[in-house]
Amino acid sequence: MSTGGQANSSGNTPARQIGHQPAAKEAAPAIVGGSVGSRRRPGKWGRVLTYAVLLGGAVVLLIPFVFMVSSSLKTEAEVASGSFSLLPEHVQWQNYPQSLSQMRFRPALANTVVITVLSVLGQILSSSLVGFGFARFQFRGRNILFIIMLSTMMLPAQVTMIPVFVLFRALGWIDTFWPLIIPAWLASPFFVFMFRQFFAQVPEELMEAARIDGAGNWTIYWRLMMPLSGPVIAIVAIYTFMGAWNDFLGPLIYLNSPQNRTLALALAAFNGQYGVTDAQQLMAASCVTMLPCILLFFAAQKYFVESVAMTGLKS
Question: Which domains does the chain have, with CATH numbers?
Answer without folding.
Answer: 100-310 (1.10.3720.10)
